[in-house]
Amino acid sequence: MSSVPIRPPHSSPSAADRRLSRREWCRLSAAAVAYTALGRISRGAESSVPAAAPAIRTGRRRPNILMLVADDHRHDVIGSLGDGSVQTPYLDRLAAQGAACLRAHDMGGNFPAVCVPTRGALMTGCQVFRALADQTGGVIASDRPTIGQHLRSEGYNTHIVGKWHNDLPSLHRSFEGGEGIFLRGLTTDQYAMRVHHFDPTGLYSSKTVYHTHQFSTDFLCDHAVEYLNGYRSDEPFFLYTGFTAPHDPRTPPKEFAARYHPDRIALPANYSSVHPFDNGEMHIRDEDLAPHPRTPDRVRRELADYYGMVSSVDAGVGRILAALEASGRAEDTIVVYTGDHGIALGQHGLMGKQNLYDHSVRVPMIVRGPGVRPGTRSEALVYSWDLFPTLCALAGINTPADIDARSFMQVLKGEEVAHRTEVGALYRDCQRMIKDERWKLIEYAVGGVRHSQLFDLAGDPWEKNNLACDAAAAGELASMRERLGRWQRSVGDRLALAA
Q1: Among 58, 85, 393, 452, which is disulfide-ready with 409 (CB 3.0 to 4.6 Å)?
Q2: Does the predicted TM-score (pTM) go above 0.85?
Q3: pLDDT digits (tens, 9 = 90+) for 449-459
Q4: What's the total number of domains in the chain?
């Protein structure tokens, strides 16, 4: 790993910071120093370290909610939570101050752009068959209230910055304000995103569209900071910021790219040049971003760029949290950092997220704020869309009755260690998965050919040793197949892969 140091938040501004006014930069830098102090205290440092300024008391009875959602952020690519090769000081600090759910999952979906169904589930608290009106598109069912819509009905000021990858009507009913809104599509240039001004009519036509002229994460953070700087209402706010990174094109700013050199990047333990069989999506766009078969040099280069993108997002998170501190509202704000799904990048011979291995179906999940026990590390099985009722419970508001998610607030409070007994996931009509605390089964059906993979995660967390043909594991295989079939029936999945 590169020896280029992380610039401390109170040092001189870099070129990336010079777009801020001198006054704003000084104020945010001072807040970042206080934020750093909070991180040191949470790790047991000396009590003489100065604390952050006290929160502004405005008589609010409900906490604000700041939700930060990354695109393609694999669950373990956070320095303190798994991959020590990546530098993420602000996410590390956020995790130290709050709770990290280490086994959070998405549910996949029937759409190659996996972010579409997973974000639909995240927004509605419903499993994908109920969250979406169209299983091959991204339209959220009109009778499913989104988390923004629900919070709005409870008196929250709801504001969106960045990526919204579902339909326009659900966006319109979820937020009363926003800026730099990235609608359906693929970012082809991180320095020239096609975004929209917030449109109160909900139409988002050519009249609202424009192109950015700075790195995507910097641009989105600018608008999130602007909202926090200017918020003056006594009503609680819900600020949703959807990053387009670390999704490709993986072109991190030079200061972050310089931290990682491919020849110093370690290959993952489950690196392979090829996948052992056709999983149904061997030549989709994501898989063809790198040559077949994969080579160590190419995978190291992809990982170096990816780490640079993640570090850039981390720095953006630091800027937003510094602005929150400067506003005096940090003590009254629930902060969530999560992602829509993971990504392979050389693991199992794959590059994308159109698969059901843990590197693709697990997501980062960090929650900090009132009611959350600092320093919590949870191994509980949760879905990312379990956030909906969890945030409602932490905020002290009612949860919509007709949702599938379950609150894991007691896990965040440190009062419970378990949540779900199993989680399942799907990808199109070719892959299905079920897992519990120890065992994991993936079933495939491609061109009339069946493949089964059974992993004992207790001794094989990298999913390298397939036990499906091991006679000693025959009982577990039969049990997991039965559980998969039961799970499919419970979510209304009619694809017969579990028999």
Answers
A1: 393
A2: yes
A3: 999 999 999 99
A4: 2
